[in-house]
Design a protein that fits this description.
Layout lengths: L1 E6 L6 H15 L3 E6 L5 H4 L7 E5 L12 E5 L6 H9 L5 E5 L7 H5 L3 E3 L9 E5 L16 H6 L3 H8 L8 E5 L7 H8 L4 E5 L3 H10 L8 E4 L2 E5 L5 H9 L3 E5 H11 L3 E4 L7 H13 L5 H16 L10 H16 L4 H8 L5
Parallel strand pairs: 1-2, 1-4, 2-3, 4-5, 5-7, 8-9, 8-12, 9-11, 12-13
Antiparallel strand pairs: 6-7, 10-11
Helix pairs in contact: 9-10
The chain binds 2'-deoxy-thymidine-beta-L-rhamnose.
C-alpha cells in the first residue's frame, strides 16, 4: 500500500523518531511511504542512509501533491494540512485515516483504541478518522518492533561494537548509557556510579551538557574523562539502529521519552526511564501506570527499590535511593519482554486493523 505519514516536530526527537521507525518498518514489509514533516533535519543523523521505500517530503508541499495514498497516518494529532484533507475527501475510494496517538500504559488506552471520529464538517467532511493507540496489551495498538530485531540482537557482538565506537570498556568495568532531559538528580547518579569501575556513555544534547557542566568541561564527542572510579565517554549522535545497539551493549540504560523506552525494553537490560515532563504533572500518573505493568509479579523488595529509584530520577534532587538488586531487576525486564514479545508488533497490528495481513 501507499502510506502518507504526517509528523510535526513539537520538540525533542520522539515525534520524528517514532514516525521514522514506523515508516522504515512499513517500507521493509513492502509498502511505499511518504513521510511528510516540518523538520527533517534530525534525520541527517538519525537515518543518514534513509530507507528504501521511504520518501521524506516537506510538510508545506503536501497540499499540492497530485495523489493521495491508501492510508494516511496523522501522528500525535498533528492536524493535517486542510488542502491535503480536501484531496483525501475527493479520493475514491477514500483513504484510511489513522490518528496515531502517544504511547501510554494507562487503562484508558484499551478503551480508546480503535474509536472512530466521523468528520461532519470542514474539508474532510464525510471521512472517518480512527484513533490508533500504541500500548502494552493485546487490546491496544502494540509496540513498534521490526521483524528479526531480537535475532539481530542475539547475534550482536557487544565488545566489538564498543571497540569500533571508540569506547572499549576496561577489564571489570560495567557499562551504562545516559539519555535524559534536564535532571536535578544527575549529580547524585554520577556520585553513585563513581563508587565502582564503570563506563558511562553519554548521549549528546541535554545529557552531555549537564554532565559536562557538572565537571566544569565542554563535552567533546569521542572524549573520555575520569570521575572517581567512573569513566565518562561522550557519544556522537548515532543513527537509530546504532542507538539501539548502544542499549544492547550496556549493563544499564537511562532512557527518556516514548521511543527509547520501548527500545530499552527490547534491549532487555535493567533501565531507568525519565518520562517526558508535562506542566500539569500528568506524566507522573503515566509513569506509575508504566511501573505497574513493568513490576507486575515482581517481589516486593525489587518493586519498591525500582519504583523508588525511578521516582527519584523523575522527581528531582534528594537522597539517592538504594540500588535495586540487579540480577532480580534484569530477570524482571526479561520476563516482561517475554510477555510483550508474545504479542504482535505495532505494524502487524496496524495492518490487521486495516484489514490487511501484510
Ligand atoms: O527525544 P525524546 O525526548 O522525544 C520526546 C518523547 O517521545 C515524548 O514522549 C514526546 O512527547 C516528545 O518527544 C515530543 O525521546 P524519544 O522518544 O526516545 O526519542 C528520541 C529518538 O532519538 C529515538 O528515536 C532514538 C533517537 N536517537 C538516535 O537515533 N540517536 C541518538 O544518538 C539518540 C540520543 C537518540
Amino acid at each position: 500500500m501507499q502510506w502518507e505519514v504526517f509528523c510535526r516536530v513539537i520538540d525533542n526527537y520522539g515525534d520524528l523518531g517514532v514516525c521514522w521507525r514506523l515508516s522504515a518498518d512499513l517500507a521493509a514489509r513492502g509498502h511505499w511511504v511518504r513521510l511528510w514533516t516540518d523538520d527533517a533535519a534530525p534525520l541527517a543523523w538519525m537515518a543518514p542512509a534513509g530507507a528504501p521505500g521511504v520518501e521524506v517530503r516537506r510538510w508545506d508541499e503536501a497540499a499540492s501533491t497530485a495523489q493521495v495514498g491508501d492510508v494516511v497516518v496523522e501522528a500525535f494529532g498533528c492536524e493535517l494540512p486542510p488542502g491535503f484533507v480536501a484531496q483525501m475527501a475527493a479520493r475514491v475510494p477514500a483513504p484510511a485515516w489513522i490518528n496515531l496517538e502517544y504511547l501510554s500504559a494507562e487503562s484508558y488506552v484499551e478503551r480508546s483504541h480503535g474509536l472512530r471520529s466521523p468528520q461532519f464538517s470542514g474539508p474532510g467532511a464525510g471521512l472517518d478518522k480512527r484513533f490508533y493507540y500504541p500500548g502494552f496489551t493485546p487490546r491496544t495498538g502494540g509496540l513498534l518492533r521490526e521483524p528479526g530485531l531480537l535475532a539481530q540482537q542475539a547475534g550482536f557482538d557487544r565488545g566489538a561494537w564498543l571497540q569500533r565506537l571508540g569506547f572499549a570498556p576496561h577489564a571489570g568495568e560495567r557499562v551504562a548509557s545516559l539519555f535524559c532531559y534536564d535532571n536535578p538528580a544527575l549529580p547524585g547518579l554520577l556520585a553513585r556510579l563513581a563508587e565502582r569501575p564503570q563506563l558511562l556513555l553519554v548521549t549528546p544534547g541535554l545529557a552531555a551538557t549537564q554532565v559536562a557542566a557538572g565537571l566544569g568541561l565542554t563535552p567533546e564527542p569521542g572524549s573520555v574523562v575520569q570521575h572517581g572510579a567512573l569513566r565518562i565517554g561522550f557519544l556522537p549522535a548515532l543513527p537509530q539502529p546504532e542507538f539501539d545497539r548502544l542499549l544492547w551493549a550496556t549493563d544499564l540504560n537511562f532512557v527518556r521519552g516514548e521511543d527509547s523506552v520501548v527500545r530499552a525494553i527490547w534491549a532487555g537490560r535493567p533501565f531507568v526511564w525519565q518520562i517526558y515532563p508535562q506542566h500539569d504533572q500528568v506524566h507522573l500518573d503515566k509513569l506509575e501506570a508504566f511501573l505497574a505493568r513493568f513490576l507486575a509479579g515482581a517481589g516486593e523488595p525489587l518493586a519498591t527499590a525500582v519504583r523508588t529509584l525511578w521516582q527519584a530520577w523523575n522527581g528531582g534532587a534528594g537522597a539517592w535511593p538504594a540500588w535495586p538488586d540487579e540480577a532480580d531487576w534484569s530477570a524482571q525486564v526479561l520476563r516482561w519482554r517475554e510477555t510483550l514479545l508474545a504479542e504482535a508488533d505495532l505494524c502487524s497490528r496496524l495492518l490487521g486493523f486495516l484489514g490487511r495481513t501484510g
